[in-house]
């Protein structure tokens, strides 16, 4: 019979391992940490089992666990004790992100610290920029974001990751960092960030839900594909060193699109809603969590992601160690 024998390369585990195109290693991950300014207790996020808000006093123990897992990079989200209209806590010298960064670099100098550069967790209105009569002002917001990025770099952040989706934010932050003598600090831009329903659990974890309206005037419409090319091209031209696509699972076509159009590292953000759904299904014994998680993360690598921001990173370390 004359037909192709594709099964020859699937005949055993060793054969499948030999020809496997994509693999997951701990080098692929950036692990999110939520750090709160108020209180001394570790608080589990109810919608994200296994994810916690850590006070500074408990951060060292968590860092020990993270490093033991082989995780080499973390991204920090802060929960301040006080909020105001301009998000002062985001750029304060002794803000929660800045203090956490100093602690991390003291305890584990080689652990990469990625600082999320946004205002939503620090503003009393919960939006990612300055608000005037319920309008989010673009250019005025850039000034605050630049101050935040510089403050984070001064505290020791290795990578600045602006997630605000204001037009021109990469250029403004790049210029600000350069003028402050932080020319070597890279920018990991949330270049392609959709206005997604998958962010719900994160807003509980970071206490950053908008107090009015939504974020559809600055985050992207989930219906749009070509718009992602415009956003990524702009940010790359303005000086971005990494391009983030967020969310990941429902946007793997966009991950592939961006992979095909840039030579920069592409980062897929495996967001809170994706995490929460898997955990909920697993707790009900509806799925095999390990197999689902690994298949999901492999799909992101297959789509073209070089790096994955994921709340599953510690779980994956356990899977890989066990196997």
Helix vs. strand class: alpha/beta
CATH superfamily: Aldolase class I
| Uncertain segments | none
Number of strands: 12
Shape, principal axes of CA atoms? globular
- CATH topology type: TIM Barrel
Major beta-sheet overview? 10 strands, mixed
Q: In the CATH hierarchy, what is the architecture at level 2? A: Alpha-Beta Barrel
* Overall pLDDT: 94
Q: Helix count, per DSSP?
A: 12
Approximately how much helix is present in the residues?
40-55%
Distance between the termini: 40 Å
For the record, the CATH class is Alpha Beta
Relative strand content: 15-25%
Function: Catalyzes an early step in the biosynthesis of tetrapyrroles. Binds two molecules of 5-aminolevulinate per subunit, each at a distinct site, and catalyzes their condensation to form porphobilinogen.
GO biological process, one term: protoporphyrinogen IX biosynthetic process
GO molecular function: porphobilinogen synthase activity; zinc ion binding
Catalytic activity: 2 5-aminolevulinate = porphobilinogen + 2 H2O + H(+)
Tell me what the structure shows:
With 323 residues, the protein is an alpha/beta fold. It has twelve helices and twelve strands. Strands 1, 2, 3, 4, 5, 8, 9, 10, 11 and 12 form a ten-stranded mixed sheet that branches. It has a two-stranded antiparallel sheet with strand order 6-7. Helix 5 crosses helix 6. It starts with 12 loop residues before the first helix and ends with a helix. Pathway: Porphyrin-containing compound metabolism; protoporphyrin-IX biosynthesis; coproporphyrinogen-III from 5-aminolevulinate: step 1/4. Its cofactor is Zn(2+). It catalyses: 2 5-aminolevulinate = porphobilinogen + 2 H2O + H(+). This is Delta-aminolevulinic acid dehydratase.
């Amino acid at each position: 019979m004359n037909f192709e024998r594709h099964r020859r390369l699937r005949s055993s585990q060793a054969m499948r391992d030999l020809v496997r195109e994509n693999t997951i290693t701990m080098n692929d991950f950036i692990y999110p940490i939520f750090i709160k300014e108020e209180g001394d207790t570790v608080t589990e996020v109810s919608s994200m089992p296994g994810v916690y808000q850590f006070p500074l006093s408990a951060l060292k123990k968590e860092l020990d666990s993270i490093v033991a897992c082989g995780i080499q990079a973390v991204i920090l989200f802060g929960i301040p004790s006080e909020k105001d209209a301009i998000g002062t806590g985001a750029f304060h010298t002794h803000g929660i992100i800045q203090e956490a960064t100093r602690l991390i670099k003291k305890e584990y100098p080689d652990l990469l610290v990625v600082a999320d550069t946004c205002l939503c967790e620090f503003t009393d209105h919960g939006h990612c920029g300055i608000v005037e009569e319920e309008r989010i002002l673009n250019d005025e917001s850039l000034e605050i974001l630049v101050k935040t990025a510089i403050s984070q770099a001064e505290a020791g952040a290795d990578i600045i990751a602006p997630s605000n989706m204001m037009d021109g934010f990469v250029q403004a932050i790049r210029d600000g960092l350069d003028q402050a003598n932080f020319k070597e600090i890279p920018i990991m831009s949330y270049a392609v960030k959709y206005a997604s329903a998958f962010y719900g659990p994160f807003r509980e974890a970071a206490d950053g839900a908008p107090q009015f309206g939504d974020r559809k005037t600055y985050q992207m419409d989930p219906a749009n594909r070509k718009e992602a090319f415009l956003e990524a091209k702009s940010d790359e031209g303005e000086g971005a060193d990494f391009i983030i696509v967020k969310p990941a699972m429902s946007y793997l076509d966009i991950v592939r699109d961006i992979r095909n159009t840039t030579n920069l590292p592409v980062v897929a953000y495996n967001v809170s809603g994706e995490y929460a759904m898997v955990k909920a299904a697993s707790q009900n014994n509806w799925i095999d969590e390990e197999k689902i998680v690994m298949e999901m993360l492999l799909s992101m690598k297959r789509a073209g992601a070089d790096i994955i921001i994921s709340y599953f990173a510690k779980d994956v370390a356990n899977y890989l160690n066990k196997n």
